[in-house]
Structures are given as structure tokens and as C-alpha cells.
Amino acid sequence: MQRLIDLTVQGARKHGRWVGVCGGIAGDVQAVALLVGLGVDELSVAAPAVPAVKARVRELTLEECRTLARQALECETPAQVRELTEVRP
Q1: Which of 4, 32, 86, 87 has its CA 20 to 30 A from that of 53?
Q2: Which residue in 83, 11, 89, 72 sits closest to 36, CA to CA?
Q3: What is the SS3 assignment for 18?
Q4: Which residues have a Cβ under 8 Å from the Cβ of 18 and sit 6 or more positions away?
Q5: Is 37:69 a contact under the CB 8 Å cutoff?
Q6: Taking the alpha carbons of 12, 14, 15, 16 in that order, is the dihedral positive or negative?
Q7: What are the strands, taking DSSP E only, across the chain?
């Protein structure tokens, strides 16, 4: 998944377009840092998820997100990505 999003963002940038993600993954606080790090411009989430997603974004720096994205792109399995993106208190 992370590679497809990365390719989508790269292609969009070449054409001056933004990338938005909606649905379950956009509202998954475990995935937020990865999506931001991959360059996703907009997250569209269900209303009940907005506070948690906004809180997660406020906890992060862009550099942290980009570092995480680089690491995720090197992962070979979804389980490795999930482990990497695990939100720790």
C-alpha cells in the first residue's frame, strides 16, 4: 500500500495536483504519520475520527513523518509496516 501511495503522490506532484485519502485508512491514527510522510495533502475522515486524527497530527513533525515513510518504503510486508507505525504512548 505504501508504495502505491508514494507513486500516486509522485505522479500527482509532476502534474501540480494534490492527493487526498479518504476512508478507513485516513481515520486510522496508526496510519496518519505514514500518510503525511508520504506527502498526502488531505485526510478525509468520518466525523467521529476527526479529534483523534487532529490530535495525532499535532503530535508529529513533518521530518518524523518523512523518516517513517522512508522506513516503511523499505518494509517487505504489511506486518512490518504496521509494527513500524504502531502508536506508542
Answers
A1: 4
A2: 72
A3: coil
A4: 12, 41, 42
A5: yes
A6: positive
A7: 20-22, 42-44
* Cell reading at 55: 490530535
Please state the domain count of the chain.
1
Buried b (16+ CB within 10 A) or exposed e, 15-45: eeeebebeeebbbbbebbbbbbbbbbeebeb
pLDDT digits (tens, 9 = 90+) for 16-36: 999 999 989 999 999 999 999
User: What is the model's pTM?
Assistant: 0.89
Joined grid coordinates for residue 44 = 478525509
Residue pair 18/42 in contact by the 8 Å Cβ criterion: yes
Report residue 8 as a C-alpha cell. 500516486
pLDDT, tens digit (0-9, with 9 covering 90-100), for 28-76:
999 999 999 999 999 999 999 999 999 999 999 999 999 999 999 999 9
